């Protein structure tokens, strides 16, 4: 079974200049993520704009990545939906495509968190592959207290959480205090990655455009070299914060991936599909300040 | 062009005993709605559990109703989605299937209501068939002030609103004060139908299980017989309120449609797919009190 | 100790024509509630516009009612606040004034419902008088699952809930299934009072302008005469629903209390402090249809 | 008239070891803010835990600061409330105490943003001192689109905004594009201060525990030395981000102010009034990394 830990890379969904899903760029994402040392790839998540794709487009993403990743790198598939029956259908398709895991958040705008366990039981209680429980209040409108997260994990027979309810470090602390041994991924663009590791996170699962940085922070931390982990965090924090902005951050990330030679375009499915000139000017400035260059080859980090 | 006014019936999505979409029941819904005098049928709306269907199931609903309704009764199709590109794809499919109109709500959890106009322009600005702008804060998490509703209507080249932001009567009043001549449908199960007519609503578009009642109220009101309209409202209000309950109301409605011989089962896609015994006992009581009987034949209302 | 059950009357806060708190009308409210047979009065609740009063005005309300009610009718005091320290101060003042109970809701916009117990412990864990736990998501923005409600009750050493999370009847059912013997008051203007009684509610605590009706429904139900209870509910439902509208309902209620001779004016602290002409016209119509007359003397209900 | 621009300091409300408001520490805050070069002090804001104070405590804060600040440094007073009448009372008291300005946010949980103008007209339309319109969706639950912000400003006869709706830089850009010349303060702990200045912000108004840093960034930026401004931002960003965390950030800030010799204790009115050990350990680490020392004397920034 795939080791669900480390530095996973959440793939964006790339679009061509006319707005269609771009399989060529998707294949380059798989190549790049592998060469950058990602421990796995997650597709069809929030930052993959899954809610903004037609079902045919979701199938294109899934089948393209499944083929490109086969035998090279494990992949997980976002399968969230408001109804358990739809989650089950999504999970079945992911399993069929060879996914290593599925990721499922609470149903959008769910009001009664006492229903969390029944939902996860119905949705993924019999999943043949591991389930990652995603705690993502910004996208779902649902805040899960730790008690509800634990109920979800039990119902899903899962020991893996992607935790994105800020501030994440103390919540990771509370969660692990109640359930030691869980695998907790941070997300949110890696802005709090170092703090999350300090609280016991097993890694990050996010779409930050330089996953090499997050991996280097983690490896230094795991090796006990907290000074190096902190220094890497602090050096790149201006860009982590800049890319990590809500709503506009995805366009920044895609622009950087375009500059790295991975994506053909920076387009998103937002109403304004490309970053505006002021954002691009500040991006140039931030990247220069932290010394990031746009090559597709893995960063060499001293 | 179809007259978008009157008493439209919102179709639920029927399920078989094992939870699959049930085309036979869907065809009976079209038959029944026609015989009950509905001016049109709306499918794939919130009460059609559209968010809880796979895309294949949505296609089943659309194609089944399109075939059954062709030449007999106009139908409108819910095409809402968070991204304009997906709405456009949904609209294209609805047009292809022969729909008379499409219905589009604000994108779920949209925060900046100044973006409403740009969204509707991108989503339905070039729709070849009429657009119904749906104001449904409970399902979308987005409250639209009247100014945003008007911006949406302009962007959609639309003059038709389905208004479900309670309390609906004063909002209808405010909307029509600023834009006389709009067609405003009430919804919300018809609980406020009579009050909405008093404020200028053109009718209701809802899934209430006895649309004959809502039609009779409207016809009496339009004929100037407000005493009869009010008396019909008051007589059936206990059941209107009972069926109109949030969350549990859909199961009640489907149970009544089952008793009327339209649906094979009362199943929904909720975690508890059938009404509980206490709800069923109260349903029996309410129906008896207001004198409603379960036949599929149109109610004869004195 | 006061019997916290039955039909409690939630007092509005009356204003004079120039918008000041009106003690004379407050005293008439106490007189009227007593004569109408209310089992108690609750002040400084959501419908008492407590959030819209200065602290001096809240003190005026409290001291006026305390004096007027002393020895005649028990009263409860809304003491909700975002911080436990402020709740404690409010409770101390209520105790000092002779209140029979305090009512406390969750802190506004609380996100982590696992903190509910700690909040109630800190806020009212040592209250010398009974605590009513209020479940009011519309006013607080906080949805409490049944598990959180039970934790709040335990922390508050309370056995009394005012439950206003719609649909209330099934939530009352779930709550009492887990904790038989609780006293559950319905609220929400009494719109679901009869259904709530069927599910085990002990009464209603609401500001409906004719509490005699709610009391008559309850007494009939408790006497086993469900037919009479249901008939009373159905007869007056058009007005219950009309007064029960969110946001605009308080102005309607105050206008009726003005007509009954209790309040000097119908003013609220909303931006539009008085009902608009269309609302007043419909009010006349509804009252006429259900046969309600405006006297201050208790309704005689056949 | 006071120049409402620059680097304003939002005062926390200090508490003694037993949880009471601490006037001695408040006076030290005024002293320190003056010596740190703040252009003004704002009291009774969200980060001043205004919602968690009794009215007597708010009066203590106001009168203490008014006395301490008189003739030395201008101060602004948070006067937000759900009802215009209460805002008016708060404004009157602030004027009486000698405030230079008042700050008013949208009413908590307001749904209809078309009512913003009427609210500000009723609340502060006749304020004799300048009004700062606060855009703070996290605390109010109300997202104001730019159109609503402009309506609020017009109604308040104001040209000053405190903008805290993330991501703040692009919203500042949109706002100033529509209304050049506005004074826009950033907030949110200064995390985005440098980006906000790039978009046209006039300064920051926040409670960051080292306002000297924010002032130095602004002065460098205004002098055209963007390299220095950016370098200062990047150097201190690890601490800006750490203190800027939602919910837990206030406790961190107060702990640092305690270490700087300003506050007697780090207590807040949260359920857990002091930072936990893991947070304190990380605080030590972050401060050491960025080279911040705890003296009350103004930082000397190269």
Automatic annotation (TrEMBL), chains A, B, C, D:
GO cellular component: cytosol
Keywords, in A-Z order: Lyase
Domain of life: Bacteria
Gene Ontology terms, MF aspect: 4-hydroxy-tetrahydrodipicolinate synthase activity
Keyword Magnesium among record annotations: no
PANTHER family (alphabetical): 4-HYDROXY-2-OXOGLUTARATE ALDOLASE, MITOCHONDRIAL (PTHR12128:SF66), DIHYDRODIPICOLINATE SYNTHASE (PTHR12128)
Protein name: 4-hydroxy-tetrahydrodipicolinate synthase
Species assigned in the record: Asanoa ishikariensis
